[in-house]
Every structure is written in C-alpha cells, then in structure tokens.
Amino acid sequence: xxxxxxxxxDVKTPTIVQEVWxxxxxxxxxxxxxxxxxxxxxxxxxxxxxxxxxxxKRGPAIFRLREHMQRFLNSAKIYRMEHPWALKExxxxxxxxxxxxxxxxxxxxxxxxxxxxEEHPAFGVNPFPNPMACYIGAWDWGKYLGDxxxxxxxxxxxxxxxxxxxxxxxxxxxxxxxxMNSQLIKMExxxxxxxxxxxLDDRGYxxxxxxxxxxxxxxxxxxxxxxxxSILPGITRDSVIEICRSLEIPLVESGIQRAALYVADELFFxxxxxxxxxxxxxxxxxxxxxxxxxxxERIQKAFFEITSGEREAPGEWLTFVNEYKAAxxxxxxxxxxxxxxxxxxxxNGHGTAHAREVSAAASKAADSGRDAIHxxxxx
Length: 379
What we know:
The chain has about 375 residues and is of the alpha+beta class.
C-alpha cells in the first residue's frame, strides 16, 4: 500500500565512532549492550540529548555543549533519576569521545536510562529499584531532513496527533517516552508523502514538529510558540532567538493558530538534527513563494557562520575539541571542578540538605553561565 523505500529512508550515516563512553570509561561500540529485561525497554525510562560537532578551522567544535548537558541533567531531575554524573564530567567525556574519534564533524548522543540489576531484578513499573546507566555515542550524520532541504525547504503537514499535555508528560524533559508521540507524528507524515509533521497542543495552537521547534515569519517579524505550547526548550531555538536579536530582527514568543501557518510569509524548523530547515508548504499549501524566504536565509547564514567559527557567537557556543585539554591544563591541579561536583547531587535530584550546604560553600567556584532552562524561560 505504501512505498517501503520511503518508509525506510533515514539520515545518511557515513561513519559510526567505534567507541562509546559508558559510566566513566570507554568501551567498544559492539560491547555497548543492555539486558532485554531492562526497565527502559519495557517502560521507556530514558532521557537523552543530541549535540552536533562542526568542522572549523580550529578543528572540531561542539555546539553549545554545556547547555545541552545541563538540559540532560534537568531531564534526569524531572524524572527523579538519581545518578553520580556531574556536568563537567559529561562535558569532558563528550570532548574526549570526539577527540578519540578523529572526526571533524559528528553527532553526539548522551543517553541515561534505568537498566536491570541482574542479581536482584525488578520487573514492575516502579523505576526506583533499577540501576542507572549512562552512555555517550557518536556518529557522522547528514542533514536530518535531506541534503537539499536546507536550501529548497521541506513539505510538511499538520498532524492529526496532538503534542503531549504538559501535566501528563513533561515536554520540558527530553525523554525517550515522549518520542513515542513524535514517532506517531513522523510516521503519519511519511506515509502521506510529507517530510515532517507539525503537532498542535491540546488547545489547538501550533506546538512543534516531531523533533524540531518551529518559527513563523510575517511582515518582517519572527514568531515562535512559547513553552506553554508543550514544546521542548530547544537549544537551537534559543540560538535562533539570540541570532535574531543580533541581526535586529523583531521576535516574539506567542501562541500561533493553525491557519497562520497557511498565510505565513516564511516558516522554518530549528533543532540540533534539523539545524535551520525552511518549510516550503503545509498541507500542500505553499508557504510564501514556496521556497526559502529572505529572513530565514539571513538567520540560516548567521547560524552556519557561527557553527563554522567564521562569525562571533552571542555567547561561548563552541567548545573547540583540540584546544579543550590545553585550556583545562592551564587551571591549577586542585581545580577538579569542585563546583560541579558539589552541585551534582542537588541538580541530579538527590536534593539532600548536605548537598545544599556543600553547594553553597562551593558557589564561589561556580561559573556564571545560565543553563538552558533558565535561558528559555526568561527570554
């Protein structure tokens, strides 16, 4: 009934990094295995991130690594995942993995999940008896919605599936279980001949794509749905907001009616995988002139100039892999990121009085960077 080739088509993956970081050490890709009775396989108890590494003149650079890893920890905290891994440790592991890979560009995938205690297995919904596991893998990944999509745009539909309501599944967490909803949206789009689907929230307002945030351009102003529309607080979304400010393009966060998609001058997706991808039609209705619009192109151009290191970013958005160790070695040997370690228990959901006391004592050593949730909630 449907074209199997279309259904099986996926993003090009030329190279898979043959090592995986696992709970503090590097193991072979083929050894990264879990038990079939692990809690995560039965109940979807995982959280993850997607982080791009870009090729620059200074070598591979990981885009907004710290913000991604902070969101990773925030997702774990929302789901009461108690674990020992701190922000700096996860960032260090990601940089080391990219360095060991020898790749100039790749996609980094941290994942944390509830595994199985084989000596004392637990099979119920209750997640607490199950041990936590953390892995970071990487691979070279092509353009998520197709090589030509960046310039010519994609054809999308409004999905019949709504986005999750925020008090049923927390949209602010990047959790594996949430992506069952995304799969329904994606599959429906594919079998109907579209590249992607746009979901509405429970009130009928535009939410996001199956794995992307969305932006609308009308009369020279950029509009994007707020967090209240059950969206993931996207790191690339925040980057677009900052880029618009630097380019002096007016931008507002506001509810968007479905009909507004049909009369928009321009539409585009944002996301780590999708980057900045124009939308050329919705439900077979052309968007604007049916191709990438001028404001989308300006934002896209600035974004790729930043990720390639050719343009100064609004913040410290690039972690240069080849320079990372040298920068760390300049610090006193006693500085082993005590601040990150001190804050780890509280950030990761342990929340004990002792952790708060240690965090307060170490606060002078903490840097002043804002985490991804703070950035998105306040801007």
